[in-house]
Amino acid sequence: MTILNKLASSLGRRDEVPNQELAQQILKSKNTKAIKELVDNLANKDKNIQSDCIKVLYEIGEQQPQLIAAYEKEFLSLLESRNNRLVWGAMTALDYIASINPKGIHKNLAKILLVADRGSVITKDHAVGILIKLSSEKKYTDDAMSLLLDQFRSCPTNQLPMYAENALKAIPAKSTADFAKVLSARLGGIEKESKRKRIEKVIKKLTKSPQ
Fold first, then answer.
1. What is the pLDDT of residues 94-117, one digit of tens each?
2. DSSP string of the chain?
C-alpha cells in the first residue's frame, strides 16, 4: 500500500489526525522509504496531497529532525512556491532541521529571511526560530544574533513576547545588554499589559541573571 493512501485527503478527512497518526507510525518504524515518498509527492498535482505530505514531514521533523534533514534542499526550494501552505510548512521543517545542519541553513539565511519578510506569521515565526537555533551555534552566533536583533526591532508587537522568551536561552552573555536595550526600546509601543509584562520579565532576567 502506498503511503499516500493513509493521508487525510485520501481518507476523505478534513482534519489533521490521520496525518499526525501517520507521522507517529513513521517515527516509530523510522521508515525512510515512506519519508522519501512524502517528499516526492510535495510536487503532486493534487494540492491536498501536497499539504498532507508537508504536514506529515514537519510533524516527523519536530520530534526527530535527523529523519528529514537529508531533504533540506527540497524544503528550501519550496520557499519559492506559490502555495503558501507549502511555504510555511517548508519553513517549519527548516526550523527543525537547523539544529541538525546549521551550516546548510546558515548558508541560505538570505533567502530564508527574504521569504519570511513577505510571508505569513507562521513563516516568520519559524524563520525567527531558525535564527535562535543558529545563535546557539558558536560558529554562527555573531551573525545570527545581529539578524535576530533586527527581527526584534521590527517584528509585530503580538509576536515580540514569544520571540523574546524563546530567544532567552540562546542569548550569549556578550549580547544580553544589546538584547535588553532593544526590548526596552519597544516597551512604549506595547499597549496590552500582559504582553508588556512578559517583555519586562525577559528584560529582568537579562539584566539580573548571569547567562
1. 999 999 999 999 999 999 999 999
2. --GGGGSTTTTT--SSHHHHHHHHHHHHHT-HHHHHHHHHGGG-S-HHHHHHHHHHHHHHHHH-GGGTGGGHHHHHHHTT-S-HHHHHHHHHHHHHHTTT-HHHHHHTHHHHHHHHHHS-HHHHHHHHHHHHHHHTSGGGHHHHHHHHHHHHHHS-TTTHHHHHHHHGGG--GGGHHHHHHHHHHHGGG---HHHHHHHHHHHHHHHHS--
Average confidence (pLDDT) over 43-59: 96
> Is residue 208 very low, low, confident or very high in pLDDT (cuts 50, 70, 90)?
confident
186 Cβ contact list (under 8 Å, min separation 6): 152, 153, 157, 160, 199
